[in-house]
Target: dTDP-4-dehydrorhamnose reductase
Amino acid sequence: MTGPERKLILLTGANGQVGFELARCLQGLGRVVALDRGGLDLADSDQIRRVVRELAPALIVNAAAYTAVDSAESDAAAAMRLNAHAPALLAQEAKRLGALLVHYSTDYVFDGTKDGPYDEGDVANPLNAYGKSKLAGEQAIAATGCAHLIFRTSWVYGARGKNFLRTMLRLGAERDELSVVADQIGAPTWSRTVATLTADALSQLLIHDQDEWMRSSGIYHLSASGATSWCGFAQAIFDNSTLEKKPVVKAIPTAAYPGYPGYPEYPTPAARPRNSRLSNQKLFTTFGLTAPDWREALRLCMTDLL
Model:
């Protein structure tokens, strides 16, 4: 007797923070073909079509993206190419194959002026080129009519790659005092949390047919529970660290952050939303999934890291 047919899953961005975790969390759902930029360069439209058509996956999980928020201000075309044009092509190919597409977006599609957490139905109004490129990707995917899940997450960090956690640990080992922005609020989200909840949602969907995939299609917010400032996040990192001498964390406003000349209102090239909180209620209502508190996830991540 043979077992059930294993669905082929194409994962892009396999070496990124989220992609690395997805390559492990998706294992039980099918045969995972995990490709990094060397295997699939999303800046190459012809290669996207060729690879997807050769593999003919039942599920495409796109964890690749242009994530250099400040650099996008001077290279908006590159951000748009990877965050909008490439996802549009993946969605077109998914539609042609009858495949399900999973894609990741960001809290930066919002302007941060809302008092409470953002719902999926709130009007997007990105402040920077990165956010505009991610919003364009969301819209392009939906326009194809393919079955899709778009997960908006926030403040992603992990034990790998360039992220706030690793930067703070490095700077904390070098300096006695660190000034960290305290007037931007959001939910630091461990990359493994994103991957685990993605796999949990997919485990429910993949046992159903395409009709159910279409009924569940749309945008879902997926971030850790709770919220803090970048300053609060930094303090929690040092509280959980094994540094012999921990730096003093000084809270400063965004306007006081030592950034780049020529941006008096926002001292870094890209403006950031002051409120990045996302409501996960739709994720719970649809899939019964609840994200862990950001503090709990941070402790687990740092156990792995240290």
The longest strand covers residues 100-106. Residues 76-97 form the longest helix (22 residues).
